[in-house]
Amino acid sequence: TWTPANIIDEQVARIREQVGDKEVICGLSGGVDSAVAAALVHKAVGDQLTCVFVDHGLLRAGEPEQVEEDYVAATGIKLKVVDAQERFLGALAGVTDPEQKRKIIGREFIRVFESAAREVAAAGDVEFLVQGTLYPDVVESGGGTGTANIKSHHNVGGLPDDLQFKLVEPLRTLFKDEVRALGLALGLPEAMIWRHPFPGPGLAIRIIGAVDQERLRVLRAADLIAREELTAAGLDRDVWQFPVVLLADVRSVGVQGDGRTYGHPVVLRPVSSEDAMTADWSRLPYDVIARISTRITNEVPEVNRVVLDVTSKPPGTIEWE
Ligand code: XMP
Fold this sequence. Notes:
Layout: H1 4-19, E1 23-28, H2 32-45, E2 49-55, H3 63-75, E3 78-83, H4 85-92, H5 98-123, E4 126-130, H6 135-140, E5 166-168, H7 176-185, H8 190-193, H9 213-232, E6 244-246, E7 252-256, E8 259-268, E9 271-272, E10 280-281, H10 286-299, E11 303-308
Parallel strand pairs: 1-2, 1-4, 2-3, 4-5, 8-11
Antiparallel strand pairs: 6-8, 7-8, 9-10
Helix pairs in contact: 1-2, 1-7, 2-7, 4-5, 9-10
The structure holds xanthosine-5'-monophosphate.
């Protein structure tokens, strides 16, 4: 019978058999799949596993800390953090085209991960790379397996030939709800387990316009308020994703106190979906939307207008870029 404890035992035995006494590397994204996959491998082979977290500076408020502090505390995993924020911002400077942003972020990610992997490999006999591939990913890609390409999140090609690893994919037979159950049984932080899907290019594709530190700060503040209020209303699991989008190149007139303002709008984009292929806008209670709107315009001075996206997918996409 399927219980988290059974699956964990079975996977731990398999991983030990596959890996033997070799070293293993794993990239953490902040998402649930890589977190659970790494935790399983750590349970199986302990410090033969080194995790790498590339902080590209495009995550939401609190997320890097969730990986670097809460996750490490919960698992005892050996983590190498690469602070690449300036590098990513530098590469993104002035770029407004969505696909261009994706290309740049994917390229930089591979380069940074590659150099971190080289450092880890220089210290030991690294033969394996952990990937959080789920059953639906296996089906979608035609069931293939083999060598490494860290493309899951960034839709780019893989590592160079001299850095090829064999894959360890302990979630290959599992669905998302099963992965969450494993993560909870492994004692991972709840906030990671229930995190909504989040795109690899992160907040860069939720700033409509060029990305810079200041715009990221504004979007992070607004996004945090939306997440806090959704959670407070007990609605986290009623929505599939809840992008908050900053229209950084748009300004509109407002009024606050005695003065006229000329600030930026943010868009709330809560959606319901089964698989992200199609989606509908979530009918969140008006009072929740009202609280989010009031708090954002009160607490984030750069934002003077909050709008709600009521477009289904199709014809809209979930993200704005
Ligand atoms: P759209 O916007 O196409 O998004 O309706 C469908 C799902 O994919 C996510 N998404 C991405 N994920 N890299 C990712 O890893 C990307 O470039 C990317 N673009 C969109 C989006 O958040 C939604 O879950």
